[in-house]
Amino acid sequence: MDIKFAEDRNLVLRVQQSACDESLKELSLRHTPLCYKIYQNYLPLFIELGKVPENFESEKDYIIYKAACSFNPAKAKFVTWVGQCVTYFCLNLLRADHRISTYDSDTINFFIDKSAFEYTTIDVDLRDYIMNILGKLKDKRIEVIYKMRYFDNPKKNTSWREIAKRLDISIQTAINLHESVQKLLKEKLTSQQYSDII
Predict the structure, then answer these.
(1) Please, which of 11, 85, 145, 189 could form a disulfide with 67 given CB 3.0 to 4.6 Å?
(2) Is 144 helix (H, G, I), strand (E, B) or coil?
């Protein structure tokens, strides 16, 4: 087995099992050059369309984190999967001009499952519903994170670096807090029992 492949797999496993900061930092160091190489290929199109990410550095860290969480070593090498995830991010950013308007399954999956790579605007009712849920959590930082990330600017997601700076926490902590409620949100949004929250 390729040594780098084995090392990546062990680092990914530690991220998946215990959200290990050091393992994620090592994965980021290993795969940042590839991320920037792919990003540079799309940069002329970003500039032409006026959709250049303000801080690709922190977006890149989140993409690598999501790639680690979703990685299946039986299907590909991690370097291949990271490359695909960066490509998805770039393509989705180029074509993202969506407005969510109904509480259907496509809406829920779009917000919950694609939030790592999508820049989108959210329907006001759905936004209020989500913020209502988050407002009842003990850790108030989560509400701030979602508000900044998805709702403060309807045309682009606030960068993880900016969110972390505002809350005086690390980028990884901001990502971990964001991910900690994804399952809860999906359960609430798919339950169709909105009256107990609104």
Answers:
(1) 85
(2) helix
